[in-house]
Amino acid sequence: MSQATAPLPPFFNDTPSVDPARRAADAQLFAQAALAVEAAAGVSVAEAALHAAERAEASQAEAEDAARAKRHAFEMNKLSKRLHREVGQAITDFNMIEDGDKVMVCMSGGKDSYGMLDILMNLQRRAPIQFEIVAVNLDQKQPGFPEHVLPEYLTKVGVPFRIEEQDTYSVVKRVVPEGKTTCSLCSRLRRGILYRVATELGCTKIALGHHRDDILQTMFMNMFFGSKMKGMPPKLVTDNGEHVVIRPMAYCREKDLATYAEHREFPIIPCNLCGSQEGLQRQQMREMINDWDTRFPGRVDNMFTALANIVPSHMMDRSLYPFATIKATGAPVPGGDIAFDEDEGCGDTPGAASTGLPGEASVSLASLRIRKAD
Ligand code: SF4
């Protein structure tokens, strides 16, 4: 005689916080009780045992689902805290946002800009200072751009916003010869428009969603292809001198932002609508850094921390250190040249204060500290 498996009693559908051991014990008790009931109802022992096994299996699967959901919620909570802490730290370290600021948050519709807006809005509610946020998106009229997505999202989250419509796509297509890269002109046009919008809105800061990986990629691109030690600053005055650009996500890892975007279910707009392939050089840098991150845990963190621990006396830029005029002082010089000894990884205190002597001249950009994942 076949019988549908009876629904489990309510205590089986308990909250995920129930101890799995208690759940297993309850399941066993329930299974024994069910066996007894079925035996009394004339169900054969074999069938009753089969039903019991099915119920035990279902209960086990439910318990595993609940444990998984609990673990996921815990991980997402930890990730969210880490990202908020990193953004707060970057803002503090570089004095990015001050009392009375009006921050223009540039929204491309990609994961990083959504994350930036989300976190800045949360920090705005808790910050000891008052600042305004206005989200701005430049609709460049790329074919297939889903115009409704950002306005709907920004309305839903209740942030003031402006959608600036400028057909830079047609301009770029008209001006740049077929087959040539369009990014340079496109980004120059975009920059000019965003500066103008910032002025019109009375914004004191322009926030961009670049993160730690963007900064490192830029650093290596400039080294490999531009022969320069130059990264992407967390805060800098714009090239026209009229605005201050900030990058509040400077300490955040890209993979964390990707997970956060998925978790928060941001309505991501694809970033390939213009038809331009992402710069090959940047892609190479990304792959190189990701490969290092996989094979040598900690290396990328160290590289990033190194950006804030520069020792000009141990580089070769004559405009940063007066190599031509240094003289022996006759006294020991902390950080002075150690001739043939190996120096690397010796545990020198990073960011140690400069002594003013001709040996070491360590420049520490504020107190940049990169935390390891919790
Ligand atoms: S990828 Fe497309 S939208 Fe982005 S800068 Fe290049 S041309 Fe412009």
* Ligand inventory: iron/sulfur cluster
- How many helices? The count is 10
Low-confidence stretches: 1-16, 346-374
Q: What general outline do the C-alpha atoms trace?
A: extended
What does this entry look like structurally?
The protein has 374 residues and is of the alpha/beta class. The chain has 3 domains: 10-73; 94-306, HUPs (Rossmann fold, 3-Layer(aba) Sandwich); 309-339 and 347-374, no CATH class. 46% of the residues lie in helices and 8% in strands. The strands form 2 sheets. The protein has a 6-stranded mixed β-sheet, sandwiched between helices. Strands 7-8 form a two-stranded antiparallel ribbon. The protein is extended and about 100 Å long. The protein starts with 19 loop residues before the first helix and ends in a 10-residue tail after the last strand. The relative contact order is 0.10. The site of iron/sulfur cluster has 6 residues, from helix 6.
Present the secondary structure layout.
Layout: H1 20-40, H2 45-93, E1 102-106, H3 111-126, E2 132-139, H4 149-157, E3 161-165, H5 168-175, H6 183-201, E4 205-207, H7 212-226, E5 235-237, E6 244-246, H8 254-264, H9 280-295, H10 299-306, E7 309-310, E8 363-364
Parallel strand pairs: 1-2, 1-4, 2-3, 4-6
Antiparallel strand pairs: 5-6, 7-8
The structure holds iron/sulfur cluster.
